[in-house]
């Protein structure tokens, strides 16, 4: 029988999309913290990663064969405002998950981020030194290290900026862009901030492939195939969604002295993952077209 997969953070953007993608293929269970997701046929349990006892009880009850650890404090601004909380959830909480996974012999996939890099170089490979700029990236990097130490064989997947349909509670930067195109807020987009954006369905496809390759462990980058800046992404979105590109105000991050420290070029080289799995995510135009078709 296919082992049960536990996804932490199913009320969030990635966890929700992952659940939708894997739903027909694996028996699933999911955790949420503040927002109980509307789910049928999936066990959903409340888990606060700050509670030292909570994961143990859940793991014993559900006995998953694999755990995809998505839950985290994901807002760099929230982590900057409260680095202690970022550490408690993203590092200590990850340690608790890793310990429990090892205890029951479950495989652990830890979802990390391109923000472990300072963004001075770009096109990062897995063996490039990670030097995060702020508490969010630092906490995710420390989570990577702890997960691998406490649960040998952990697969760390570093994901880039993602876009896709929102969960009932949490979305991607697409919502911010739409509000801007609809004239409800200024649409200042950086011309000097580069990423390799990934359509969230491709993150889910990549994670599904990783689940099917139990020998895959260590760190892998799972970015999109195209390196684009924020303004370029906005122009592509305008074209595909039929918005007025004139709504975009192209600005330079370098000209914003008070903007919080953000990697200027956190683009990922995902060749290692591609060679291991044969999987490459779709480009920006294809991803945006798929998203538009999902949203109508
Ligand atoms: N979104 C991106 O572009 C992106 C890029 C790179 C990497 N990532 C990584 O992908 C993962 C998922 O990101 P996301 O965008 O889906 O985040 P998100 O939408 O902010 O969702 C975060 C999830 O974590 C849960 N959570 C928050 N605090 C918690 C706590 N104290 N205890 C237990 N659960 C808690 C939330 O539960 P409630 O909502 O119920 O409180 C929610 O389910 C994260 O590990 C993030 O670092 C995301």
Describe the structure concisely:
The chain has 296 residues and is of the alpha/beta class. It has 10 helices and 13 strands.
Helix content: 25-40%
Kindly provide the name of the CATH class.
Alpha Beta
- CATH homologous superfamily assignment: NAD(P)-binding Rossmann-like Domain
Strand order of the largest sheet: 3-2-1-4-5-6-11
Point out poorly predicted stretches.
Answer: none
Q: What structural category characterises the helix and strand content?
A: alpha/beta
Rg computed from alpha carbons, rounded to a whole number of angstroms: 18 Å
How many discrete domains? 1
Number of strands: 13
CATH topology: Rossmann fold
Cα distance, first to last residue? 37 Å
The CATH architecture term is 3-Layer(aba) Sandwich
> What global shape is seen?
globular
User: Average pLDDT, to the nearest integer?
Assistant: 97
Please give the count of helices: 10
**Ligand identities:** NADP nicotinamide-adenine-dinucleotide phosphate
Share of residues in strands: 15-25%
List the helices and strands in order.
EHEEHEHHEHEEHEEEHEEHEHH
Tell me what you see in this structure.
The chain is of the alpha/beta class. The chain has one domain: Rossmann fold, CATH 3.40.50. Helices cover 39% and strands 17% of the residues. It has ten helices and 13 strands. The chain has helices at 13-22, 54-62, 76-81, 83-104, 135-150, 173-181, 200-211, 230-241, 271-277, 284-295; strands at 5-8, 28-32, 43-46, 66-69, 107-113, 155-159, 162-163, 187-190, 194-195, 198-199, 218-221, 228-229, 248-251. The strands form four sheets. The protein has a seven-stranded parallel β-sheet with strand order 3-2-1-4-5-6-11, with helices on both faces. A two-stranded parallel ribbon has the order 7-10. Helix 8 packs across helix 10 (284-295). It is globular and about 55 Å long. It starts with a strand and ends with a helix. NADP nicotinamide-adenine-dinucleotide phosphate binds next to helix 1 and strand 5. The site of NADP nicotinamide-adenine-dinucleotide phosphate has 29 residues, from helix 1 and strand 5.
């Amino acid at each position: 029988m296919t082992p049960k997969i536990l996804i932490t953070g199913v009320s969030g953007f990635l966890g929700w999309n992952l659940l939708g993608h894997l739903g027909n293929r694996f028996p699933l269970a999911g955790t949420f913290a503040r927002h109980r997701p509307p789910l049928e046929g999936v066990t959903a349990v409340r888990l606060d990663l700050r509670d030292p006892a909570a994961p143990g009880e859940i793991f014993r009850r559900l006995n998953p064969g694999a755990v995809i650890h998505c839950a985290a404090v994901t807002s760099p601004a929230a982590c900057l405002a409260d680095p202690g909380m970022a550490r408690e959830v993203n590092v200590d909480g990850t340690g608790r998950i890793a310990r429990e996974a090892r205890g029951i012999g479950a495989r652990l996939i830890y979802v990390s981020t391109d923000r472990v890099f300072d963004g001075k170089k770009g096109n990062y490979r897995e063996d490039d030194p990670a030097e995060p700029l702020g508490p969010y990236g630092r906490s995710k990097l420390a989570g990577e290290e702890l997960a691998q130490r406490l649960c040998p064989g952990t697969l760390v997947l570093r994901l880039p900026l993602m876009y896709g349909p929102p969960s009932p509670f949490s979305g991607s930067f697409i919502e911010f862009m739409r509000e801007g195109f609809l004239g409800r807020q200024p649409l200042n987009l950086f011309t000097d901030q580069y990423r390799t954006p990934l359509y969230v369905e491709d993150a889910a496809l990549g994670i599904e492939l990783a689940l099917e390759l139990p020998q895959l462990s260590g760190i892998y980058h799972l970015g999109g195939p195209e390196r684009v800046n924020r303004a370029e992404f906005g122009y592509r979105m305008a074209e595909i969604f039929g918005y007025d590109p004139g709504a975009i105000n192209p600005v330079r991050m370098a000209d914003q002295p008070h903007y919080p420290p953000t990697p200027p070029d956190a683009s990922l080289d995902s060749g290692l993952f591609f060679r291991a799995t044969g999987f490459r995510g779709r480009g920006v135009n294809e991803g945006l077209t798929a998203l538009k078709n999902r949203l109508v």
